[in-house]
Amino acid sequence: MDNYEVCEHDVIVIGAGGAGLRAAIEASKEGVSVGLVCKSLLGKAHTVMAEGGVAAALAYADDRDNWQIHFRDTMRGGKMLNNWRMAQLHAQEAPDRVKELEEWGALFDRLPDGRISQRNFGGHRYPRLAHVGDRTGLEMIRTLQNHGIHQGIQVYMECTIVELLKEGDRIAGAIGYWRETGVFVVFRAKAVVLCTGGIGKAFRVTSNSWEYTGDGQALAYRAGADLIDMEFVQFHPTGMIWPPSVQGILVTEGVRGDGGILQNSKGERFMFNYIPEMFAAETADTEEEAARWLKGDKHARRPPDLLTRDVVARAIRSEVRAGRGSPHGGAFLNVYSQLPAEVIRKRLPSMYHQFKKLGDVDITSQPMEVGPTAHYVMGGIRVNPDTQESTVQGLFAAGEAAAGLHGANRLGGNSLSDLLVFGKRAGEYAAKYAKDRSSGPRIDEGQVREAQQTALAPFEGNGTENPYTLLRDLQTVMEEGAGIVRNKADLEQGLENLKKLVARHRDVKVEGSRHFNPGWHYAVDLRNLMTVSQAVALCALNREESRGGHTREDHPDSVTKWEQVNSVVRLRNGEMQLEHARRPDMPDELKALLTLPEGA
Amino acid sequence: MADARLKVFRGTIEGGALKDYQVPVFEGMVVLDAIHHIQAHDAPDLACRWNCKAGKCGSCSAEVNGKPSLMCMTRMDSLPAGRPIVVEPMRRFPLIRDLVTDVSWNYEINKRIKPFKPKPREADGTYRMQQMDVERIQEFHKCIECFLCQDTCHVLRDHRRYEFAGPRFMIRLATLAMHPLDTENRLREIKDQFGVGYCNITKCCTEVCPEDIHITDNAIIPLKERVAGEFYDPLAWLWRLVRGKKADQRSEVH
Q1: Could you read off the pLDDT of A199-210 as tens digits, one per residue?
Q2: Which of A256, A347, A514, A543 is catalytic?
Q3: Using one digit for the tens of pLDDT, what is the confidence trace for A58-77?
Q4: For a tag site, which of A295, A536, B74, B94 has the least CB within 10 Å?
Q5: Closest to B199 measured CA to CA, from B227, B167, B231
Q6: Which range marks the domain in which residue A292 is found?
Q7: Between A105, A117, A517, which is nearest B47 by CB?
C-alpha cells in the first residue's frame, strides 16, 4: 500500500468557493476543529467569476420588495420544481447573510442615501441584486477568505479528494492527494461538507473552469447518497462566442439588467416574440414600455430581455435556427444604444475589458455577439432543507453541489445568496453533528487501499487513452446527446456512447511522474465527470416533458404530473438506479404567495 | 494562419531548460491556449495553473518573453511575430514544476495583517457610505491575487528583502486603512512589520498589474505619508505630547 499522511478534524469542508468558505467559518464558530480542502489555491474557486450580484430582498432599491416576493420569483423561475422549504429559507435569510458580509469588509455599490444599491436581473420582480460593478463574486470570495483566515480554520490548498471514507453507514472522512507531490492524505473527520460546485466541464462550451468536474456529486453518489434533478443543466444565454479562444466565457446578465437588449441579424428585438404565458402579465409587450421601465417608471413592466435564463437561451437558439443569427451563430447584445459610454464603463468594467482585450470589440460603440454556454447544474446532492445533510449520515452539502433550491432553472443572483445561506447552515449543522459524537471514526484500511489503487491505475498497465482526448470526446457526446435541446434518440445514443467512454477510461494512460502532473489530474477527475454525465443523460431521458433547463423537442410541453416528482439517482448493487420520488407538499400559506396579486 | 513557436520552461528546482514546441494559431488566441494545446498533444504532464481563462482569478501568472503576465490575457498577436514566445515561471517564487511556483509566502503574509474591525451599525441597522468613498477602495478590491506585482517588485525579486510585504499587501493594508468602517490602527506594523519604507517608488508593480490598479500612487504613497505623519512629523509629535496621546493610537486615518 502507498504511504499516506493523516489529518484529523471534527469537520472537513471540501471546496473553498463561497459555500465552502461560509460553511467553514460557521463550523469554526461552533467551536469545532475545521479543515478546508480545495483543488486550487485559496480564492480561485468559481465564485470569483460570479459577476452580476447577490440576490437578497433588502428592499433598499425598491421598498415594495420582501422575502415573500423573492420566494415567489424563485419558485416561478424554477418552474415550481424547487424544494419549497429551501426556497423559503433562502428568501428569508439572504438579507442577513449579505449584511453580515459588510461587517466582514465587503464594499457593495451604494444608493444615493448610502445604503447598498441593488440591480435588476432576470426573473426578479424588483431590483434585488447587491453588487460591486460586475465583479461581485470576487468581492465575496475575498471577503470570506480574509475573514476566514482569522477563524482558526486549517486550509489545505491544491488537494484533490478522490473518495469519501465510511465507517458502516456513516461518514468517516475522505482520502485525497496533494496535487504538488502526488502523495496521498487521509482526512479523518466526524462530518464532511461537500461544496465542490458544478459539472460544467461535461460540455465543450462552458463558462466553467477545469475544476468543475462533478467531484462532490460523484463522491456522494459513490458513498451511497441520493442525487436529484440531474437533468436540469442551465445554459446561460449570454456567453461569448467569438473569437474561438473565448467561446463560453460569461457575459453577465447585468448587461441586460442595466438596459442591454437582444437583437437578431435583422436588428429586431426578438424577445418580444418569446414571452411565456406565465410571465406575460408582468412583461412589457412594446419597446416603448420597455424604454419607460429603463428610465425608472415604476408602472412600466420589465422588458422581455430579462425573462428567465432558460427562456432566453431557447429564444436565441430558435433565432439562429431560423436563419436570423449573428455571423458566428448567436445573437447581438447591445448596450451601447441604451446607455452612455461612461456609464457602461463604470457599471460593467470587466465586460468592457474582457471584450476589448480578448474580442477586439468596444461594447460602448459596438454590439456583443453572444450565445448559450453551459453554466450551472440545478441538480446535485439531495439534502435536508434545514440541515443540508445528505442521505448519508454525517455527509452534508451546500452551494451548487447540493440540489433543491433552484428547481428546474436558477435565477441569476440566487447562486451567490444560495451559497451564503446554505453554506452557513451546512457548517452549523455539520458542527452540531460532530459535537454529538464523542469518539472519532475509525478509518478502514481496505477503503484507503482501494481508493489509492483506482487513483494510481492510469500510471499502470498498457492503456493507450489520452486523458485530454477522452475529455474532449466526453464533451462532444454530452453536447450532442444531452445539450440544450434533447430528444429520446439522442439521449439513448448519448448513454450508449457514455458507456463506451467509461470503458475507454479504464485504458487511460498518463505520462510522467506524480509531481504536479495535470494529465494525471484530469484522468482522475474524468471518472467523476463520467458519472455525473451519465446521471444527467439518464434523468433527461426519463423526464418526458420540457421544464426549465430541461428541453425535450419530442415532449415540448410542461406536464403537471411531472411537476409532482423529482428524479432521484443512486448507486445500488453497482448500478445507477433512477426513481421518481414525489415532492413534499407545500403548506397553504406558501402556496398563497405564488399567486400574489399584481402590485402586491 | 502560420504555426507559432514557443519555448516553455520544463523542469523542477533541481534543474530544467526551455523546450521547443510548435502550435497552430487561430484568431484571438492567447498564450494559455497554446499551453493547453501543448498539454493535449505533446506534453500531457506540462504543469501550469489556470482557472477562469478570463483575467478574473489570477491563476495563470507567468513570465511571457520576460514580462510578468497573465497567460489568459496575453494575445498571441500582441507578441512579436516570427520570434519564439518564451514562457517561464514567475522568478520571484520557489519553483514547484514547469510553470508552477510556490506562492504560499503570500498567504502567510496575509494572515499576519490584523483583521477588519468595523464600527457599529447605524440605528436602523444599516451601514451608510457614499459611493465616492467606496470607489477609491473598490479600486484595490479589484486585485485578483495573481502576485505578478510581487514577482516584479525588485525589493523582493532582486534584493530578497522579505521584511517588505510587497505591493499586493500594501494594497490590502491601504484598503483597510481607507475603509470607511474600519476602526483598527495598523500604522506601526505597516512601518515595522510590513516595511513600507523599502518601496522606492519605481512603479514596476503598477506597470504589470493586469487590473490596472495604481498600486504605487494610490496605495503605497498614501501609506508612506500616513506613516511619516505618525512617526516622523515633529509638529504632530509635539501635538500628541501636549494632548497626551501615544503614537500608537489612531490619530489619522481618514
Answers
A1: 999 999 999 999
A2: A256
A3: 999 999 999 999 999 999 99
A4: A295
A5: B167
A6: 238-373
A7: A517
